[in-house]
Every structure is written in structure tokens, then in C-alpha cells.
Amino acid sequence: MLLSRICLEDVHLPRLLSRLYGVGSNCDNGEEISLSGNPFLTEQAYLLNVVSEILNERLKEITILNHFALCIFGIFKKSVEAIELGSRGESGLPTGSAVIDVLGYSLAMLRDICATNGGVGIDEDLVDVVDTLFSSGLLDLLLCLLRELGPPAKIRKALRQADSQEATTSYFPKLCPYKGFRRDLVAVIGNCAHRRKQVQDDVRQENGMLLMSQQCVTNEDNPFLRKWEEPILEGNSENQEAVAELELQGSVDMPELAGLGLRVEMDQNTRRAKLC
Q1: Residues 15-53 pLDDT 10s
Q2: 245 and 156 co-located in one domain
Q3: pTM of the model
Q4: What pLDDT does residue 145 have?
Q5: Which of 162, 166, 174, 180 lies closest to 251 in space, CA to CA?
Q6: Domain range holding 186?
Q7: Do 180 and 97 share a domain, yes or no?
Q8: Co-location of 157 and 239 in the same domain
Q9: Residue 189: which of 152, 134, 245, 258 has the closest Cα?
Q10: Are residues 109 and 74 in the same domain?
Q11: Tens digit of pLDDT for each residue in 44-98?
């Protein structure tokens, strides 16, 4: 309970992490976690793991404050900068690598933070933390990371079979640093998009519909990826139509549309996909 109050309900998490690293702390919004080219420490990864578990357990009890959300986003960005996605992780968290574990635990906290609408008892005048993260570039970074990973193995295999050109076979995407990394990226986007039309629209406007549809292919490492597509489609006719067009072209297979009570047909007048 004390650690929860210190790290989640007050402003001391950045200072505590910095003290574990042995450097001073004099900035806000997570910027004080200065790596200076060095990796995170195991102690920092352990602390973030504990805080992540507390956050997940108390998500419905506490108010997520903007400074905490921005701190976690700052840590996530710095772990992304410090890591090379050049080798595939063979296990889930913890991996034994401090920087990869920091990446995973901060991403897990962002997933949980974005699953809230600001916590319980929040003042109506306070800004939704998801809006704060969205305006700080969270969605752009997540989509960028997904593009760097490329489609899942099933999709890449299908693309190679459909197109034997050298450009397709010579493409070398970056690799997931731990099992579940792709799932966690998609989960954060899905939670951000839940009942938030601005986020849903931005996914589409950033050419993310095909990208997200390609991610939502289940495999043994990510058995529940399919469910994260629905928050991007629900209540958004433009996104539903965009996916319907992709489905008609054969680019994606979207049972989520059927789950929303929709089916895809060709409009005989416009020769475009329409939802019925």
C-alpha cells in the first residue's frame, strides 16, 4: 500500500527510479530518467514490475494522474530508444534483460492506464489521461513500432506465396524482444480507441487500418490478438467501411465485422464495398 501511494498516487516514481540509477532528478513527465547511453538497471526493472502488478490490481480503485501516465510513457520511449529489435525474444517477461523488461513493464502499464477513463472519483475538469497520452504522441509511436515489426509470420508467409518478387523476400522486419510484445502494442492501441472516435479516426488517417488488421492474427504467442480489433471499429462507420473495402479486396479477413452484425457486399453503382 505504501509503494502504491508513493508511486501511483504521488509524484515520487521518477525520483525513486533515478535514485536506483544513481543520478539526480530534476525534471517532470518522465524526462528525468536519463540513460546517457547506458541500459536500465535490474533494480529499476524489478521496481517497475512491482508497480505494474499493483496498478493492475488497483486499477478500479485509484485515479490515474497525468503526471504518472506521462512518466510511464517517458520511460517507455527511453526504453525504445535504448533497445535494438534485432533478435527475437524466446520468453515472456521477465527476460533477464533489464532494458527489455523495462520496455515490457512500461508497455503493460500503458495498456492498463489506457483501459481506464481516468479512474474513480475523477473531477470532471481533469483531462482524460488517454487524451493526454494521445496528444503526446503515444499512438504515433505505437503505430511506428508495429510498422517496424511488419506483419506477423502468417501474413508474411501468405505475402511471399502471393508475390515471388525479390523485394518481398528481401524484406527484413524487426523482431519482438519478448513473447507478447506485438500483443501488448495492439492492446494499448485497442484500449486507447475504445469509445474514443478521435483515436479511431487517427488510426485510419495514419493508414493504420490495414496495419492493425494484419496484426490481429492469432498464434501461440498471441492467442487473443483478434479481440483488439473491435474497439477500432465499434461505433465508427468510416473505419468499418475502410475494413470492408480491404476485406473485399482480399487484403484482410475480418470476422469482427460479422460480430458487429455487419456483412460486406459490393455496391453495384459505385463498385465499392458497402456494409449491410
Answers
A1: 888 877 643 333 444 444 444 455 789 999 999 999 999
A2: yes
A3: 0.81
A4: 96
A5: 162
A6: 138-276
A7: no
A8: yes
A9: 134
A10: yes
A11: 999 999 999 999 999 888 888 899 999 999 999 999 998 887 778 889 999 999 9
If asked whether residues 119 and 147 sit together in one domain, one would say no
Q: Cβ(146)–Cβ(152) under 8 Å? A: no
Query: What is the grid cell recorded at 146?
Result: 508495429
Residues 6+ apart with CB under 8 A from 191: 111, 114, 115, 130, 231
Domain count, the chain: 2
Domain co-membership, 143 together with 106: no
Per the DSSP assignment, residues forming a β-bridge with 273 are 266
Residue finishing a domain among 102, 136, 170: 136
Q: Are 207 and 165 in contact (CB under 8 A)?
A: no
From 91, 112, 136, give the residue that closes a domain: 136
Q: 31-69 b/e with 16+ CB inside 10 Å = b? A: bbbeeeeebbbeebbbbbbebbebbeeebeebbbbbbbb
Is 217 in contact with 225 (CB distance < 8 Å)? yes
Rounded CA separation 126/128 (Å): 6
